[in-house]
Amino acid sequence: MGPFNWIVSAIMVGIHDVLSTMRMPAASGWTWTVSIIGLVLIIRAALIPVFLRQVSAQRRMRLLQPDLKRLQEKYKGKSDQLSRQAMAQEQMALYKEHGTNPLSACLPMLIQVPFFFALFQVLSGIPAAAREAHGIGAMTHEQAVQFDESSIFGAPLSASVLHGSGGDPAAVAVLTSLMILAMTAAQFITQRRIVARTVPDEAADNPLARQQKVIMYILPLVFGVGGVLFPIGVLIYWTTTNLWTMAQQFTIK
Predict the structure, then answer these.
(1) 3-class DSSP assignment, residue 136
(2) Residue 77: beta bridge partners?
(3) Which residues does residue 155 pair with via DSSP β-bridges, in sequence order?
(4) pTM of the model
(5) Is 253 exposed, middle or buried (0-12, 13-18, 19+ CB in 10 A)?
(6) Domain that includes residue 48, residue range
(7) Separation CA 229–CA 175 (nearest Å)
(8) Nearest partner of 178 among 101, 251, 235, judged by Cα
(9) Which of 82, 105, 117, 197 is deepest in the core (most CB within 10 A)?
(10) 37, 16 in Cβ contact below 8 A?
(11) Count: domains in the chain
(12) 100-131 burial, b for 16+ CB within 10 Å, e for fewer?
């Protein structure tokens, strides 16, 4: 994760330096918050070509549904191993023929995962870097101290509900709860949009549709439960990127 840690911190520090030259206070939590949001915008803008490929794959997946339904009917009631293998092989052949697969809808999120964990590691390591007089990634020791001491609405950006990091615990809990609600709601709405785009109503009972619906409920739950582990700064990143994804889904017809 070392290279990703450096890239993430370098982008964030670069935006912070630009904002500082524009007379935003260098030690302000809002300056660092805008830096994190800027990091999201840069990463997501770079992923626009991937998103357009995702939309194209979703459309191809929707066109594939009648063939998948016929395949399901062909093997209905056959539960022996040979039938399951034959069905899986024919299903993969259909995906190949149409140039798509069920994971294509998740591609932008999967590409973001290394950057997400890099930001988590950087922000989680800032308190130690501030205490031990060293930098982290592209962030100098002075910047680590600035970030560690910065807050918004009384909640330090490096704090989390379970691990704390100074500040007002009530403010950390309230801000964390609000951002978890926002990011999980955006995730759920986005996944519903993907399901509607990928699976037509007449194919709502096929295995792909059931898989997509499981994802629709599981992903928000995972991020909702895991949110209490994330520093405020990471929650800002993930909330912003989920809102971006939701907006993208509604801008493409």
Answers:
(1) strand
(2) none
(3) 152
(4) 0.76
(5) exposed
(6) 2-251
(7) 13
(8) 235
(9) 105
(10) no
(11) 1
(12) bbbebbebbbeebeebbebbbbbbbbbbebbe
The closest of 49, 44, 64, 92 to 246, measured between CA atoms, is: 44
Taking the C-alpha atoms of residue 103 and residue 93, their distance in angstroms, rounded to an integer, is: 15
Task: Locate 140 and state its tokens.
Answer: 């100098």
CA angle 108, 106, 223 (to 5 degrees): 95
Helix (H/G/I), strand (E/B), else coil: 112: helix
- In sequence order, the 6+-apart residues with CB closer than 8 A to the CB of 59 are 197
Q: What's the longest Cα–Cα distance across the chain? A: 70
Which tokens is 34 given?
């805008």
At residue 215, does pLDDT exceed 70? no
Helix ranges (H only) for 99-138 are 107-131
